[in-house]
Here is the input.
Amino acid sequence: MKRATSFGTRRIATERLLVAMLFLAPAAIVVGVLVGYPMVVTLWLSLHDANGSFVGAANYARMFSIDETRHAITNNIIWVVVAPTLVTALGLLLAVLTERIRWSTALRTILFMPMAISFLAVGVSFRLVYDENPQRGALNAALVAVHDAFKPPSKYYGAAPRDGTGLVASDGGYETAAPVPVGEPVAMPLVGLPRNRVPSDAQWAGPLAAGTELRGVVWLDFTRGGDGAAGSIDAGEVGLPGVRVEAVRDGQVVATAVTDGQGRFSFPDLTEGDYTVRLAATNFTEPFRGLTWLGPELVTPAVIGVYIWVWAGFAMLLISAGLAGLPRDVIEAARVDGASDWQVLRRVTVPLMRPILIVVLVTLSINVLKIFDLLYVLPPDSSQDEANVLAVEMYRVSFGGGLDYGLGSALAVLLFLLILPAMLFTIRYRRRREFAPERPVGGRAAPRGGGALSRWRSVVRRRRAEEEGES
Here is the structure.
């Protein structure tokens, strides 16, 4: 009888196993074809060179000797350290702030919308945002507007002396090539100033006669049609008012003057000797034209900023879901106990949210390790090498000019090995959080979260006990 029962039990177990295998077989086949087989082929290709000859681990040694690969690994480290941390911190901040406003759902929807845009479209869009020309780039246009509000450019930027008129460049300004004796008029013709930037109060310069003091004229040496003579004041040529002029002797500025509406200046106190007359550099200060966001120096921070813009909404939604499940009695006890908003966030909210924050942080770390499309589209060719990461380098080596599938496959294996620890950590951490019992504190179960959290929990329990005793 026992043998029959044992046989029946084994038969049922066998049938259940067969049914389970039958249901799992389609998924296993798909995983094997789409995941398992490419992994095996990639590992096999990494042991061969570009010609298909077996080279063993030579590709793995070679990729660490190439400057481009080492730079890509360095950039990946920067990405892993900076991007997930900033996205998680910003997501936590947005989640806490959106809880306190009336239209929180609408705001969260708006903040999450960048996730609906592909990285290809994001890269193309931010090419325009980061454009160096303030007339096209939105970010530089905003920076220039703010900068010019506090420090506007000079009126005569871009202007320069006409060739052959005896003026030479000097520390951002222009000065006479040789000292000028007092009594001899100093002619200082400038060109390169568009007519639309000529001051409205500018008047015809007119001839300048000699005198007993150091004097001169600064004018726009340009006549429409090209009929005027270079270096002389022709009819219709206007003086340039408001130009700062300096008299220099022995390398020291001894006097300053400002031109009038006709562009004339004089130094009444200088009646003898020779002086170098200089147009100060402040007359030609160029306007602020923004930053080269996608240049070699700023390209990596600029692309990380775009990544944060896209993924901050994702982190905010996950953290907001965790915040909705927090025990409100603990937070209220902390506030009654006199804790500030910062203390509640640091000592109550963050400890309770630690599991979710860790999951978000690790998930983003895995994501940035394999980031490709944003870095392939956004940086220009001149900065592509500076912004390079492992996924982009793998593509360039495999499908670029060299078609070196062996080295590209070795980079793919390296990328997988870098991602694998983060994946295993996430799985083990979630299992440990799911099955680990709560730690007892004072004879009662208390959640993880630190001393302050346990203390405020105790406050809640004590107050409830007092209320029950009174009743």
